[in-house]
Amino acid sequence: MTPFQQFLDTQPTIEVLVGFEKRDAIAAGIIPNLASKWAALHAVYYGATRWAKQQRRGLEAARAFSLSQLVYIEDRLKAIPNEAERWRVRHKLLEKRTTHHALKAKADKLILKPARTKPKLKVTITKSVHGTRTIRATVDEHDAADIEHYLRDGLDPSKPPGPQMLRRFLDLIQGSGSIPTSVRRPIVVVGLDQHVEILRGEGDEVILGLTDGTTITGAEYLAMQPELDEVALFHPAEGPVNLYRGQRHANDKQRDLARTTLTVCPWPGCRHGSDYCEIHHMLAWSQGGETNMENLAPVCPYHNQINHDDPSHTNTRGGVQRRSGTPTWVSPNGWPAVNGYHPYGAMAVLFGDECAWASAT
Ligand SMILES: [Zn+2]
């Protein structure tokens, strides 16, 4: 064995950073740039944090990785502004030791959006162009979901939604109406184990997905317990358990469960929350498809419209099929691709990487 091979075999692990001091590292000849990266690693795995449980879990997994891979992971995670989401992705990247190539591929799939800072909440209005001005409002995602729900209510599906939504928007702003935030609330997707963990008071850091395409923390979930009839519980083996106080008739319940299996339209990159989707028969009614859970998927109006029901029709846009229990977009050549825009659908949340669908992400 050459000295270099020996060196590779004795790569230090994260544990060498216990007691890390940047000044000492630089004084000992470590270049400042590398010392800074080690400082970041030290802060993540050993620094004071309110994410203590995540940190313990992360440290356990990080021991299997080389320092340079851990540095790489932190470099990639900089693209995620939200700390809870950063922990979620960090755990995924730390799942098992891989080659750099595989690690990079996994990060590319998990971290979709380019780095950006959290936008400031504000309204901007442009100058006039042909007698029109564009008003742009950056608001909290929950407020945006309430507004979108209001604007989409009662649209005429035979006409484009944009102008109709504008009419409702102007009527609201200029009239005396107000957005009803409590009339209808989105459904929360929760795993049975997460539910128990949160009720025990140990799940404050858990991130749950809502069917309007937003998220809440375990702590927020706990705070909304009196409104439990908007929660869909899923068991890892049994699938959908029930909706609390399920007095709605079967059809509504099927629609609710379909909306929680996947919380966005399955088309890759589509941002429509399943609340704004139509319930689509994956095998068309006209082709003998039944109205049961196995055959129902939430698909946004646009993608539902371009999804051809007739399999003999030349298919150039792909369509939605059930893969590992989850409605998934499949290309015209038969390749499935997951919409990673809002990974909080019940199957992804509950089965994680055990589910073949999630490992395709
Ligand atoms: Zn869509």
Descriptors for this entry?
alpha+beta, single chain, 361 residues, binds zinc ion, five-stranded mixed β-sheet
Task: Write a structural description.
The chain has 361 residues and is α+β, with helices and mostly antiparallel strands. It folds into three domains: 3-110, no CATH class; 122-174, no CATH class; 188-359, no CATH class. It has 15 helices and twelve strands. The strands form four sheets. It has a five-stranded mixed β-sheet. β6 (231-235) and β7 form a beta hairpin. Zinc ion binds at residues 265, 267, 270, 272, 300, 302-303.
The helix fraction, in percent, is: 25-40%
Main sheet summary? 5 strands, mixed
Q: Total strand count, please?
A: 12
Question: Overall mean pLDDT score?
Answer: 80
Give the overall shape.
globular
- Rg calc: 24 Å
Q: In oligomeric terms, what are we looking at?
A: single chain
* Terminal Cα span: 39 Å
Number of helices: 15
- Model regions low in confidence, pLDDT < 50 over at least 5 residues: 242-250, 354-361
Strand order of the largest sheet: 5-4-3-6-7
Total domain units: 3
What string gives the helices and strands in order?
A: HHHHHHHEEHHEHEEHEEHEEHEEEHH
Structural class: alpha+beta
* Ligand identities: zinc ion
Percent strand equals 5-15%
